[in-house]
Amino acid sequence: MTDATERRERSTAPFLWAWRVLLTVAAAGYLFQAVSAGQFLQGDYAFLRFHQVGTTTLDVVMVLALLAAGALRWVARGPLLPLLGTLGVFAVSQAQAGTGAARMVWLHVPLGVVLIGLVWLLAWYAWTSVRREGRR
Predict the structure, then answer these.
(1) DSSP state of 104
(2) Which residues of 104-132 are buried (b: 16+ CB within 10 A; e: fewer)?
(3) Domain tally for the chain?
(4) Greatest CA span in the chain, whole angstroms?
(5) Pairing with 43, which of 11, 59, 100, 125 sits 20 to 30 Å away (CA)?
(6) pTM of the entire structure?
């Protein structure tokens, strides 16, 4: 490994690890959201509050993941895909939260399924593919 490559990997590592951990937390959190929604729809109305708090918490986690992905791109000169992927997941999560707040369950539930798939795909990518890429 060249000296420049080692230096770049050292500068990338903190942002990459932060992004990976935040996406892993988000992936687990969105699964909890599905469970809390299911409990609420089943008639356990106490879970609606858990679902609402989970949404706010995951919004914070995704904003932090977006900041980590931005730092990975611009500070550490990493690839663009983590930033775009995180931005896309964040946009879908906001649309999904908006449809939930508007009580549009017919759209809220399918968007939730899409959101869970996207965040798990992005988390998988974060743990398997990012190190091999770099800014070209």
Answers:
(1) -
(2) eeeebbebbeebbebbbebbebbeeebee
(3) 1
(4) 60
(5) 59
(6) 0.87
* Residue 110 forms part of a structural domain: yes
**Cα(4)–Cα(124) distance, rounded to whole angstroms?**
27
Answer yes or no: is 46 within a domain: yes
Task: Give the rounded distance of the alpha carbon of 49 from its chain centre.
Answer: 21
Task: Quick: pLDDT tens for 39-94.
Answer: 999 999 999 999 999 999 999 999 999 999 999 999 888 899 999 999 999 999 99
Residue with tokens 């989970």, as numbered in its chain: 54
**Which letter does DSSP use for residue 43 in this model?**
T
- Neighbour-count burial for 3-14, b at 16+ CB within 10 Å, e otherwise: eeeeebeeebee
Q: Can you tell me the distance from the alpha carbon of 72 to that of 56, in angstroms, rounded to the nearest whole number?
A: 24
What whole-number distance in Å separates Cα of residue 41 and Cα of residue 20?
Answer: 32
Task: Of 22, 10, 9, 15, give the one whose Cα is nearest residue 122.
Answer: 22
Residue 129 DSSP class:
T
Residue 136 has a pLDDT of 45
User: Which residue range forms the structural domain that includes residue 60?
Assistant: 3-131
Please give the Cα distance from 95 to 114 (Å, whole number).
Answer: 11
